[in-house]
């Protein structure tokens, strides 16, 4: 049956989908709209920058005059800096009259501090930090006031200790060393974390240095000023200092004020566009257009502010102004698109029949292969030769992988298929728990039963593999009648030792639920050795043949603990190393020290006894009633 080539169908669909006229009209209108939008954004940026400059200038002038008033009063001796009552009245009066100011304070040469603070909830607090010795916390007094019409109302006094030392604050140190006013940006003030602009001045009284006066404006106030600007809803404005730190923003992301552009969440596309523009342009003043995956083009502009080399950065998505223009462009384009609608509908119909449905089925089949749900992979005949061959090849691959997965652990096969690990020799040291389990007396049983022993071996191996997989382990290999399993590789498992012990208990329980292989073999149905430690995990072998396995002393000890189980007459033996991984577990019983071939020192070993259940009011065989309690099953007790 003839099946057309994929390339032939694509050519036909491309010919039917030629829409060059609509594209040309769209480009022309888009260019004209873009020029108009750029003019609008430039005008808006100029208005925003002017408003911020004016507000900042007024605020800084207010801070400077307030600081000079306090300095002059102390300098003239009108009020002594040590006069607590008058000093408090002065600071409180100035703070109440200047809502933009957050702090008015004074730092003494002996480390004391006194200040008035306007809190975010509208109250005023008087903060006094006393003197203290080196390395000692300083006494703290906070008097809280609530403003009322024409007066303030005292609420409470809080006494505590403070680690704040005014002598070490930048605003104090720089002002003390300079005769000029000093501006600083700080994050920590006497009341804790509070980013602010601080103006500080050195105070001398009769030629003697008496301290430093400080006036601070919270950066929260600057953010509120930006938020009050009449800027579009999707736009944002940022104030940056000379080091690029974000001091204020018109709209904090998730309600949190970020310190740098890198602190904004990735979902904030406007901030991401602004950050990209600032990073790409090293000058203070610029206007650029930044492409953004979610918002489209974003206009970003930067301009200088009249303070400490600060600058204002605004980011405005083009869609803020272009949504209406683009809607009109789309309406015009619809007229042209209508002429191609019939051809497009025909192309869609053919594409859906020839491409979409077959490819969707193939994608679903590929996802099934990725999940190793190989039984659901089917061949779906299609009209196109390439897609039909693809479906057949996918089915053959699923059959091959299904067989391949039976020879290697699934956790190893999956990354090989995905390509996340490379099939070449190599490995890494890893903390693992290794378990060996085999059938007691299997050699003698094989001699006695011959080929008839195979069903018994298969049943044991099936039970062991199921128990290992149930606890998230990896079956490494079968060694005759023995099973080697590892935990914590390839995937990481914090409780790998407990998982191995639970798997061992499950194997033992399942084997005891099975009928004995031969008469007189009821006591010991399986022997298991468990050890934890460091092993080399990876692809071991040659360049032509590899085996994903674990090697090392930890593996050797685990295999030899099986013989220790035989010598001690128990079914499960675990080492001290595994016990340390388990922690204190009441279901284990120590067996003392055991000599293990290859180890210079004896190894401490333990076992997990068979679970015993006592009936209510019964006896444990020693004449002691248990009061109705029952011992937990060992596997249940190991679960954390």
Automatic annotation (TrEMBL):
Membrane-spanning regions, if any? 6-29, 332-355
Mind telling me which PANTHER family this protein's record contains? ADENYLATE CYCLASE, TERMINAL-DIFFERENTIATION SPECIFIC, ADENYLATE CYCLASE, TERMINAL-DIFFERENTIATION SPECIFIC-RELATED
Q: What is this protein called?
A: Adenylate/guanylate cyclase domain-containing protein
Task: Decide whether keyword Transport is in the record.
Answer: no
The signal peptide annotation in the UniProt record is: none
SUPFAM superfamilies per record: Nucleotide cyclase
Q: Where is this region: Disordered?
A: 613-640
Could you tell me the keywords of this UniProt record?
Answer: Membrane, Transmembrane, Transmembrane helix
Which residue ranges does the record assign to the Guanylate cyclase domain?
Answer: 433-562
Source domain of life: Bacteria
The cross-references to InterPro entries, in alphabetical order and at most eight, read: A/G_cyclase, Adenylyl/Guanylyl_Cyclase_3/4, Nucleotide_cyclase
Q: Gene3D superfamilies from the entry? A: Nucleotide cyclase, PAS domain
Protein's organism: Sinorhizobium garamanticum
Q: Read off the SMART domains from this record.
A: CYCc (SM00044)
